[in-house]
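I'd like us to work through together how a protein chain folds, taking it slowly. To get us started, please write out a protein record for me. Go ahead whenever you are ready, and we will take it from there:
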Amino acid sequence: MDKKQICNEIQGFVRKEAGNSLPDGRPIFDEPLVGFAAADDPLFDVYKTVIGNFHRKPREILADARTVIVWVLPISAVVRETNRREKELPSLSWAWTRGQGEEFNESLRRHVVSILQEHGFTAEAPQLQESWQVVEDPATGIASTWSERHAAYAAGLGTFGLSDSLITSRGSAHRVGSVITSLFISPSPRPYGAPREYCLHFRGVKCGGCIRRCPVGAITAEGHDKIKCREHVYGPLTKALAEVCGFAKAGCGLCQTGVPCEAEVPESPPKLFQPHMTTP
């Protein structure tokens, strides 16, 4: 298998599978972005520091890992538009995207693992392993043992925003998936030099879109309060909305819609970013 075949498999699955659909049949996700990172990329060592020593490197998950395959599933305009109108809770379409959309993403992870194994390569989807877990670290706050957003950063797919969202060429409204494999694929270039490069706030440009969009004040000019955010996202009102849709989680996503980075990397004056790794 090669890079083109992997991309075709992922893109074809998103385009053809019935799971990628709203109740009215329209797609949840648009054409995916796909990137590749080397399993021995030094960034995965850096993540041990900026995320926490509990964050696993690719070869701690798969001993013969050579490549991390990452995809971004951009949320469709019809879903984004419904959520853009909301001010306190996510729209029903967004809640469906969090539930059905992530089930679809899990199916895509399994599909990629299966295809690689059929061609004689080892493969693991870290998010689907029983060992994957959320960790509350005193130093860095809420994190996980494998961050797909950070894998996407390593694979050249985007940088982080003030709200900790991943801003890609298709914006910050999306879901991310990844698979680690023994197949070697040349790494994708990283067209940026700093972890926050695509965010207007970190370019010295007045924005604050995500600050204004957060219904509970979890985002300020100082950053993202993960605990306050989680209390809202998994709180009783949001949980009740999820139950209406028949899922366990409804998400929120207000900070990912109705902002300049919703569907693109926003334009700005010359870049004024800091060339150091921070902790999204």
